[in-house]
Design a protein that fits this description.
Blueprint: E1 7-13, H1 21-31, E2 36-42, H2 48-53, E3 60-65, H3 70-74, E4 79-80, H4 82-87, E5 92-95, E6 101-104, H5 107-118, E7 129-132, H6 136-147, E8 153-156, H7 160-170, E9 174-176, E10 191-194, E11 218-221, H8 230-237, E12 242-243, H9 246-261, H10 269-280
Parallel strand pairs: 1-2, 1-3, 4-6, 7-8, 7-10, 8-9, 10-11, 11-12
Antiparallel strand pairs: 3-5, 5-6
Helix pairs in contact: 1-9, 5-6, 5-9
Bound molecules: NADP nicotinamide-adenine-dinucleotide phosphate.
């Protein structure tokens, strides 16, 4: 073992103790018999620059970046992937062989992969898509859906100005609609996406009436605690196909693991089970 390089990676955030990423990456390290570890990196606001600059010296191949550091970290990179630049935030740092830092954002990749995993025939241009929420996660979802060929995305956010600003920034196919019309904006959509925090454990359910939603529309909620949000339960009860947020979380981790440890890992039924158990705990 002594001559084999020990590779470190981790997740920087504040707070970060709730992160499921160590479970995921350490499972893969064990499965592929790699010599390394993935650790929690609690980095207080204000200490991000020191923490990121220290990665290479500490023997880290890189790290994930989560709230509240995703936007600020992008400015500390030596290079940034085009997708991350478009999203406006990074979620992964890769320490390059020359010590420089490369930032990527794999949330959009993870999101699309999760849809295809659950519904292999899904395609982005099947019809209009309604996206609720205009926060950080929405940016990744919107950019990924647009890149995947979506033709018509209706963006609705509780704070209307944020939806208007984001739609103006991203341009076609994203158009903003007022939050007040959200119940009726679901008419003739092929897909509904919740990227708000409503329905997450500890938060009230999303205030949304599904009466105009076609019964064959795919309903996607990127929340994964709980695995079935009130929105997904309601959609399932009326016959809509659904996808929860766990697949997005697991799939965004795959390209990061490959960049740090050199193996593109698989999501096996055993891993999914372990993640579901951890979410339910
Ligand atoms: P964020 O940047 O704080 O955005 C929160 C969004 O929720 C905003 O659009 C906000 O609207 C909306 N919101 C908050 N309270 C609301 C209310 N009472 N009614 C309606 N809308 C409300 O958070 P984020 O990083 O985008 O994360 C959003 C959710 O996505 C979280 O639940 C997070 O766990 C989940 N997520 C999942 C994954 C995954 O891998 N599955 C990845 C990232 C995030 P305003 O603009 O009006 O405040």
């Amino acid at each position: 073992m002594a001559d084999k390089k020990f590779v470190l990676a981790g997740v920087m955030g504040w707070p970060v103790g709730h992160s499921r990423s160590p479970l995921l990456h350490n499972h893969w390290l064990k499965k592929y018999k790699l010599n390394g570890a993935y650790v929690l990196l609690p980095v207080q606001p204000g200490r991000l620059t020191d923490a990121v600059r220290g990665l290479g010296a500490l023997g880290f191949a890189g790290c994930n970046v989560t709230l509240p550091h995703k936007v600020e970290a992008m400015a500390l990179m030596d290079s940034v992937a085009p997708m991350a630049r478009k999203i406006g935030a990074i979620n992964t740092v890769v320490v390059q062989p020359d010590g420089s830092l490369h930032g990527t954002n794999n949330d959009g990749f993870g999101y699309i992969a999760s849809l295809l995993e659950a519904h292999p025939a899904w395609h982005a241009d099947a019809g209009p898509i309604a996206v609720l929420g205009a926060g950080g996660a929405a940016r990744a979802v919107l950019v990924a859906l647009a890149e995947r060929g979506a033709k018509d995305i209706r963006l609705l956010n509780r704070t209307d100005t944020k939806a208007l600003e984001l739609a103006a920034e991203l341009g076609a196919p994203v158009t903003a609609l007022p939050w007040d019309v959200r119940h009726d904006a679901l008419a003739n959509v092929a897909m509904l996406v919740n990227t708000t925090s409503q329905g997450m454990h500890g938060n009230p359910a999303l205030d949304l009436d599904l009466h105009t939603l076609p019964r064959d529309a795919l309903v996607s909620d990127i929340i994964y605690v709980p695995l079935e949000t009130p929105l997904l339960a309601q959609a399932r009860a009326r016959g809509n196909p659904t996808v929860n947020g766990l697949g997005m979380l697991m799939n965004q981790a795959r390209p990061a693991f490959e960049a740090w440890f050199g193996v593109m890992p698989d999501i096996t039924p055993e891993l999914r089970q372990a993640m579901e158990t951890s979410v339910r705990a």
